[in-house]
Amino acid sequence: MTTSTLQTGHPLPPGGATTRRWWREPMMWLVIGGPLLVVVASFITLALALRHPDPVLATPKAHSKAEQPAVQGRNHAATPER
To answer: In this structure, how many other beta carbons lie within 10 angstroms of the beta carbon of residue 59?
Structure first.
């Protein structure tokens, strides 16, 4: 065995530096960790949205004759023009 090979028989990279596995590199965890965190957070958000949906609110009707113009104006402003 020559000095340029490790005990496993694999040749050393140029310059004699040893390589580390990808999971031991801190920069690799920064590259993978950000998107992985976003995917996990999206599944948590989806679970919360499915478990606790927002209730449907009924539109209030006018209680008296005096409130009817305001309700009609609000409904007119909310409908799209044709």
So the answer is: 8
